[in-house]
Description:
The protein has three domains: 2-313, Up-down Bundle (ABC transporter transmembrane region fold); 330-409 and 491-576, Rossmann fold (3-Layer(aba) Sandwich); 418-488, Rossmann fold, CATH 3.40.50.300. It is elongated, with a radius of gyration of 35 Å. It has a six-stranded mixed sheet with strand order 6-9-10-3-11-12. Strands 2-1-4-5 form a four-stranded antiparallel sheet, with no helix packed on it. Mean pLDDT is 86; it is low at 572-576. The protein is α/β, with parallel strands linked by helices. The protein contains 21 helices and twelve strands.
Amino acid sequence: MLIRLLRAFLAPYHRDIAVVVVLQFVATMAVLYLPSLNADIIDKGVAVGDTGFIVRAGGVMLAVSMVQILCSIAAVYVGARTAMRVGRDLRSAVFHRVGTFSGRELAHFGAPSLITRTTNDVQQVGMLVLMTFTMMVTAPIMMVGGVLMAAREDLGLSWLVAVSVPLLFASVGLVASRMVPGFRLMQTRIDAVNRVLREQITGIRVVRAFVREPVETERFGEANDDLTRVAVSVGRWMSTMFPVVMLILNVSSVAVLWFGGHRVDAGAMQVGSLTAFLAYLVQILMAVMMASFMLMMVPRAAVCADRIAEVLDTETTVVPPADPVRQTTGRGLSMRGVTFTYPGAEAPVLRDIDLDAGPGRTLAVIGSTGAGKSTLVNLVPRIFDVTAGTVEVDGVDVRRLDPDLLWGRIGLVPQKAFLFSGTVADNLRHGRPDATEDDMWAALEVAQARDFVEAMPGGLDAPVSQGGSNVSGGQRQRLAIARAVIRRPALYLFDDAFSALDLATDARLRAALRPITTDATVVVVAQRVSTIVDADEILVLEDGEIVGRGTHEELLADNETYQEIVASQLTSEAAA
Length: 576
């Protein structure tokens, strides 16, 4: 999977890769040539007292060193730039793939895991690419060239290379094979730590309200300890690698000096050749060590690549139409025989839902918690697709509509109002990018948010924290409503969007909405009867089925479920 991923994302940079390979080749050949020059200086200059030769050869060594330095710098620069671009492309690909996911895929992976895959996992793969360009390209050139140059200096000592290099490879391979399962488990444990940390940060108010700090501290400690144990286990194996490499390197150097000294004493080898051979052996083993360092990174990068590829290979269950409808003539929303079952659920959450909501009309949906109200709303913008039946917008099945056309006709205010970090104006422009200040103030006025926005420092330019954490729940809901209103959509979907508002504000907001929704279809999901009392039609859901349909007065007269809901919220006088 790692190779497949790298092949796909490195393909656009084949020219840069070729430049890196050429530069690293020249730099490595220069490094390999230096011991041979040094041997000539010793044997042909120092040994015979030829100062002129020493100066000339020294000048050549200086020139070769400069070429090596310049090529190495250029190779590292081009390699690092390419690696960063590959990381950028990977993050972008994961981000855009996640953007196509339906609620089903998002629930399958979970937000903490997707964040880890987009950041930590991509970073690991990008670091592997960087180290490949800076070290791995050099290693095979160094090993092959070092063996040839060592054999050129003295063939009689080449058996030492034949023994030490395979021994080093075997030792490193054994250690690396032990680290692979640990790296795989480590990424899973990182997901767990991120999940616990994310829950504790987002739910800090609940934790403090219920005095659960000790419990949450213990829960985080367990996740942290699990990750630490795996990291320590992998670290122990990793810590053995360099001592093993250095042991083999030093023993090999001692062997060269021992056997090479005997050959020099016997006149079969010159001193310069012995120093060159030792230098080449060190270069060969250092190349193996660089390769071993890469082997330490490859297992973890391979695990990360698997996790990234899992996201990239996951196709959304909400599939865009092959031949989308790009223009509609009808108006309104309708559902026919809609049934929906969550993956793995034993029973459907919605059963045989039929409804019609036309322009200028308000359809309300009410029911107990878990009745399927929010699920019904989520089927319209295709956050999920129906298991059976059809959902039609403007007379066309939403599965046949162009996604941009569908979403462009919908103004959605979700059950949990979410604001983005930025300013009030930035959040309003999510609904309509070309909105003017007058448009924004008008939308805020409809949403009963103008007063508190004007009181904020900066007004429309007032900062909004991520998630809207620096405003109250009611203010957050009103800003989310203004974001939908400014769009002037053909279909408004309010999913329990008035729950944080007091009754007076709720009433004023609904009154302000009425004039601007005369040509639009409005669907309101609510828990509070007062929010939907004026709706043209009210659907009563119970266990995923419609058990009542009509106006407030009609349902109050003959629907037992609706009567129970009303009785639980209103006094007998108010109900009458």
